[in-house]
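fyi for ur records
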Amino acid sequence: MKPELKDLVEELQMAFNESVCESDRIAEVLADIKRSGYEVVLALDVTIGVSAAELEDPSEPPAATVPSGEFTLNDEDRYFLQDLHIAAE
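which gave:
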């Protein structure tokens, strides 16, 4: 993932975390669970996928694609696979 995009995604993840931590409703429910005699461990997994926006010319018909068993990887595909520790050559 490109560094500038990675920074923005991390900022988005922090915003999600802050919104959950500052939620009065979530705090109320957690307090209710604790009052019921349970300990709470809350783990959230936020998965954010991004891709470059491609502007299409509406006057052109969509190109037909025929599956051939072959595919190509763009830079974003490679960044994604690299983040998953998958080698793509």
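Residues 3-51+70-83 form one domain. thats all i got for now
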